[in-house]
Amino acid sequence: MSEALKVRLDSKLAEVGSVLDVEGVLAVDDFVVGDRSFSAPEGVAYELTITNTGATVLAMGSVEAELQGLCDRCLEEARLHLTGEVDALFADDPDAFCEGDDEEEIEVLPIVEDMIDLTLPVRSAIAVEIPFKVLCKPDCKGLCPHCGQNLNEGSCECEARLAAEGDPMNPMSALKAFKTKDRTGE
Ligand SMILES: [Zn+2]
Ligand SMILES: [Zn+2]
Fold first, then answer.
1. 24, 83, 110, 145: which has the fewest C-beta neighbours closer than 10 Å?
2. What is the per-residue pLDDT for 186?
3. pLDDT of residue 14
4. Is 156 a member of any domain?
5. Which residues of the chain are under the pLDDT cut of 70?
């Protein structure tokens, strides 16, 4: 069950320069990255400082989450502890802040009915931290490409058998076979 994290810009944030700290845990839907999916059963913990800067409202802080997904090598469960940074800017009229020639493109989000919606910034701060390769442990041995044995749990006979037979998948043994044939053809 996902939630929304919305903060009302009420009296606590009415004055220019006023600051409000918010913290809590946001329940989120699974993170889907390509064909991989990660759940955050305990949600995303956030600690944010919201500042009324006058023209804009700034939300900065940190987020933390424990994700569960599959190991890219052995397909068993992998857990990820991730931390990220939130840096979000809100304005009544976000289009007025489109600085096209600015090197750093900061996305300005809209203030809707005196509320800022921090759901996406909090979620994104974790999503960008998901590594390209996710492993159950740094030295995961993965699965045998021949028989599918999980090599963390035990070895299989494939390595020994293929070494004895001459692995047809191994380009070196294929080359050896080709050279031998070539020579006999002369
Ligand atoms: Zn693994
Ligand atoms: Zn095997």
1. 145
2. 40
3. 83
4. no
5. 1, 98-105, 167-186
Query: pLDDT (tens digit, 9 = 90+) per residue, 56-69?
Result: 999 999 999 999 99
* Strands (E) located in 71-181: 77-91, 108-110, 115-117
- Cα(35) to centroid of ligand 2, in Å? 26
Q: 26 lies in which domain range?
A: 6-127
Q: Do 142 and 70 touch, CB atoms closer than 8 A? A: no
C-beta of residue 150 within 8 angstroms of C-beta of residue 91: no
pLDDT for the residue 176? 56
Please tell me the distance between residue 33's alpha carbon and the centre of ligand 1 in angstroms: 18
Confidence at residue 23, expressed as pLDDT on a 0 to 100 scale: 97
- Tell whether 174 is covered by a domain: no
As a whole number of angstroms, the distance between CA 32 and CA 83 comes to 18
For residue 151, report the distance from its CA to the centre of ligand 2, in Å: 8
- For residue 41, how far is its CA from the centre of ligand 1 (angstroms)? 20
Q: What is the sign, positive or negative, of the torsion defined by CA atoms of 73, 131, 63, 113?
A: negative
Q: Say if 135 falls within a structural domain.
A: no
The answer to whether residue 184 is domain-embedded is no
Residue 178: what pLDDT?
A: 54
Cα–ligand 1 centroid distance for 157 (angstroms): 20
The closest of 130, 149, 150 to 140, measured between CA atoms, is: 150
Instruction: Count the domains in the chain.
Output: 1
